[in-house]
Design brief:
- The structure is a single chain.
- The chain is built from 19 helices and twelve strands.
- Bound molecules: adenosine-5'-triphosphate.
- InterPro entries: AAA+_ATPase, AAA_lid_NorR, P-loop_NTPase, Sigma_54_int, Sigma_54_int_dom_ATP-bd_1.
- GO terms for molecular function: ATP binding.
Length: 451
């Protein structure tokens, strides 16, 4: 079942708005009203007109970006200057148009909704292997489905351990080419320049000392399939030139052969290097860079999608110990508070170490965390406020004549603010950290906004 369509309006042009809602209703798409502090759970039409303060609309759209399921269409029921369109797209709107400035606006909405529905089904299926529910991750998976459906060459970038190889394999899996063949993976760090590209292009018998028989290279194996070049930044310069030729002309020669062969494959590349900077330094060919980066997809580091730490950890615990294994909340709290410079791979390895230390029955507890992975208590202790600092703060509240109830309220408010700030405004994570409901923090932020 798809999420219901909602709308929120900033427009006071009541007659136009009624007309728009009437047209949507006639098409069977009657949206339900969303109130400013409601949590968006699916597609939302945000109506505005040329009298609306654009900043207000932008603020709301930006706030909706915290919710993974929210998909926004910003619709003007008046004029729509191009600058406003850009501003709203930058805030995170997926579609921006003027209702009375386009032909068949209802069709625009209907086709977007249909597309999003199909895409969400694909994304849900992808999440079984590419685990994560955060907004950043869902946006990445949505982009992945779009990339896979296009004919573009794809360049996947991101820090080590963010899932580039997994994503590359899914691009191939979702690729709808009829009769597509295999996905062939080449790790460019293993390519030896001295072998003049035999790994990529193949070779004839006797082409070099160890060439005891004729062999196909990766391009031949990937014919009518996908060639995945991992760590593309490591591709030696001479091979960059040969690869470019094969991509431009669609032909290549085996090492030691004069015969041109056809190269027909989809190219997907991954790198954790900044290829733009490599081009400037002269270590990567600019023409090849343009050729391979038809569609660039940047995978977020784990620190920018901390909400996914728990679901990822659950997934890895289940992989190690089966889906029935119980895990103590304190273990997840420990995993959440830690940093992961090695991203998902580091979390996966840590979970593996904890899971394999757990013996026998019962839930996995913090007692199963290997000593080498324990937090640095000395450092944490130094950062914590001393009891005298805390005492001084409470003393000043007492001198102001506040009683226990007010002091508790003040400290609670400070704790909420600090937790929200610490989690970069993510209320879900802040609520988890404080052990309270997200609703409580929503009320807190709404109250602050009103003050
Ligand atoms: N979203 C995810 N869900 C489940 N497993 C994941 C996810 N992301 C990464 N992994 C796992 O983390 C490990 C590292 O992923 P992967 O090899 O795809 O990363 P990478 O970005 O290609 O790393 P590198 O740049 O070091 O080659 C793999 O074991 C992979 O299965």
């Amino acid at each position: 079942m798809s999420a219901p369509l909602h709308f929120l309006t900033f427009s006071r042009s009541h007659a136009q708005l009624a007309e728009v809602l009437g047209q949507l209703e006639d098409a069977g798409l009657a949206p339900q009203a969303l109130h400013p502090h409601d949590v968006p759970t699916g597609p939302v039409l945000v109506f505005f007109d040329h009298h609306t303060a654009l900043a207000e609309v932008q603020e709301t759209i930006e706030a909706y970006q915290l919710y993974a399921e929210a998909r926004i269409m910003a619709v003007s029921v008046g004029l729509l200057p191009t600058t406003s369109t850009w501003a709203l797209l930058r805030s995170g709107a997926a579609e921006v148009f003027a209702w009375f400035g386009v032909e068949k606006p209802v069709q625009i909405v209907a086709s977007r909704l249909r597309y999003w529905q199909t895409q969400e089904q694909q994304v849900q299926e992808l999440q079984r292997r590419l685990v994560g529910r955060s907004r950043r991750w869902l946006d990445t998976l949505r982009q992945l489905t779009d990339m896979a459906a296009s004919n573009c060459q794809v360049l996947i970038t991101g820090e080590s351990g963010t899932g580039k190889e997994l994503v590359a394999r899914e691009v191939h899996r979702l690729d709808a080419r009829p009769h597509k063949r295999d996905c062939v993976v080449v790790d460019c760090t293993n390519l030896i320049p001295g072998l003049s590209g035999s790994e990529l292009f193949g070779h004839e018998k006797g082409a070099f000392t160890n060439a005891i028989s004729t062999r196909d290279g990766a391009l031949a194996l990937a014919h009518d399939g996908t060639l995945f070049l991992d760590e593309l930044g490591e591709l030696p310069l001479p091979l960059q030139a040969e690869l470019l030729r094969a991509l431009q002309e669609g032909t290549y020669k085996r090492v030691g052969s004069n015969q041109w062969r056809q190269a027909r494959f989809r190219l997907v590349c991954a790198t954790n290097r900044d290829l733009g900077a490599e081009v400037k330094r002269g270590t990567f060919r600019q023409d090849l860079y343009y050729r391979v980066s038809g569609w660039t997809c940047e995978l977020p580091p784990l620190r920018e999608r901390k909400e996914d730490v728990v679901v990822l950890a659950e997934h890895f615990f289940a992989q190690h110990r089966g889906p029935r294994q119980l895990v103590d909340q304190q273990v997840y709290d420990f995993l959440l508070l830690r940093d992961y410079p090695g991203n998902v791979r580091e979390l996966q390895q840590l979970v593996g170490r904890i899971a394999s230390k757990h013996l026998g029955e019962g839930p996995i507890t913090i007692g199963d965390i290997p000593r080498a992975d324990w937090p640095d208590f000395a450092r944490l202790g130094a950062a914590a406020p001393s009891s005298t600092e805390l005492e001084a703060g409470v003393k000043s509240l007492l001198y102001q004549g506040l009683g226990l109830k007010e002091i508790k309220e003040q400290v609670t408010e400070v704790a909420k603010q600090l937790a929200i700030r610490h989690e970069n405004g993510n209320l879900k994570l802040a609520a988890h950290r404080l052990g309270c409901s997200e609703r409580i923090l929503q009320m807190h932020t709404a109250r602050l906004a009103e003050d």
